[in-house]
Specification:
293 residues; alpha+beta; Lipocalin; 2 domains; four-stranded antiparallel beta sheet; 4 helices; 12 strands; globular
């Protein structure tokens, strides 16, 4: 069954990649323009969202107010449709600020599944320089993409720079951790104990990829759903006789073992190839990126 899900998703993404890439560029442009319009008070939230999300977010903003519903009523009404932990109760649309001057909007494609596209959005307030990173879910309503959910994302952008294909131009790898069931970003809930965290993540059929424009994606967990993300990665520099930098990674396994695998990849012939593998204990993983091979 694991193999079926993996093959299905890889076939789906490869067949739709070109079409989705063009569509994502279009949707990303629309989203950036729409959010800039909203933050300049030239349009309203419900002009950018699906009707259902507009009702949901309106309820969330007014929950437990004198004129709003209780938390229990809000949960009962919406938790079978949306992840209500990400509702942003008491908060405005996309950011918690009540007042702002100028908001800079940056949008980047994150993932897709069928007719749903997820974008990673970074919002920066000009005066305070506060930053807010969001995963924004877009789906079609009446033939056009509209916002249908907003999740808080880690503010730290997981990126790694290098020249991995050896063409003399810089590449930027990004971590993409999604569910094979629906393409949604997977968030690690640190409030859960280890058993519940593993069960929750594994049930979502996780897919851990490293992606960069112009490079084939590197799928790190083929046929293995017992992963909790990436524990470590590093650009090792050019360590062999082939052009380009080599990449070292350690996957955060969904288990109780202190033994991990350190994998080294090279990019050659328009694909990633694993060239080295060895065991490494958790206490040997450096926190400062100083790993030597």
């Amino acid at each position: 069954m694991r193999l079926f899900f993996t093959i299905y998703f890889l076939l789906l993404t490869s067949c739709c990649f070109a079409q989705t890439g063009k569509e994502a560029i279009h949707v990303g442009g629309w989203l950036k323009a729409g959010l800039e319009c909203y933050f300049s008070d030239q349009c309203t939230m419900d002009q950018l969202t699906t009707q259902r999300y507009a009702h949901y977010k309106s309820d969330a903003m007014n929950t437990d107010m004198n004129w709003g519903m209780s938390f229990d009523a809000f949960e009962k009404k919406w938790n079978h449709i949306y992840n209500t932990k990400q509702a942003g109760t008491y908060e405005g649309f996309l950011i918690p600020l009540q007042d702002w001057h100028h908001i800079t909007v940056n949008c980047r494609f994150y993932s897709h599944f069928g007719d749903v596209i997820w974008m990673s959005v970074l919002l920066t307030e000009a005066t305070t320089r506060q930053q807010f990173r969001r995963y924004v879910k877009l789906m079609k309503e009446k033939g056009a993409f509209r916002i249908n959910d907003v999740w808080e994302a880690p503010i730290r952008q997981n990126e790694l720079s290098g020249d991995f294909n050896g063409d003399g131009k810089g590449d930027t790898l990004r971590q993409v951790f999604t569910s094979l069931l629906d393409g949604a970003p997977l968030l690690i809930d640190t409030a859960l104990d280890t058993d519940r965290l593993i069960a929750k993540v594994v049930s979502k059929k996780p897919l851990l990829q490293l992606v960069s424009e112009g490079l084939a994606p590197l799928v790190l967990n083929k046929n293995n759903f017992y992963v909790l993300g990436l524990a470590y990665w590093k650009n090792m520099g050019d360590t062999n006789d082939k052009p380009g930098d080599e990449l070292a990674v350690i996957i955060r396994a969904a288990d109780y073992s202190s033994i991990n695998r350190l994998l080294v990849y090279t990019y050659y012939g328009n694909r990633w190839k694993m060239i080295s593998e060895k065991e490494i204990r958790e206490e040997e993983i450096p926190a400062d990126g100083s790993l030597k091979w």
